[in-house]
Amino acid sequence: MTPALKRRDAAPSVDIQVASPHWDAQPLAEQTVRDAIAAAAAALVAGNGEVSVVLTDDDAIRTLNRDWRKIDKPTNVLSFPAPATAGAEKMFGDIVIAYETLARECDEEDRIFLHHLSHLTVHGFLHLIGYDHQTDSDADAMEALESKIMIALKLPDPYLGRDLLRGGA
Questions:
Q1: pTM for this structure?
Q2: Alpha helices, DSSP H only, in 2-112?
Q3: Domain 13-157 is in which class?
């Protein structure tokens, strides 16, 4: 699914829970998450609402991944869109990010931790508002939007290096 792109007025409120001491090593993580969600919301019409973000570890995200997706291994980010409800403020849903997987990916892919955290946060937020990557065309649209948002944050396009290695795409 690819929702229409439009401008929006206000960024969602962001509730962040730090659920692992690993995140103490990244004192700018919470602000990085807030900035990424604000940039993603600025690129889209999502309305006012709230996003909950949990910064956790591999053990916790592995349990969630196993219980919700039937995949018994850690992953970098999971998104849980909230059901639509009538009310004053919309709840977009929850984003959960695992420290060790994020750090491992940074080491393996020579990425800067906070840049990759921004990208995973944007990716998770896009899932909350209806984007997915189940088909190639949906993946291309989602990745293009992620790239646009990262550039708006003055951060590197997370797909540029991958596309160059693959010979473009």
A1: 0.88
A2: 29-42, 58-69, 99-109
A3: alpha beta
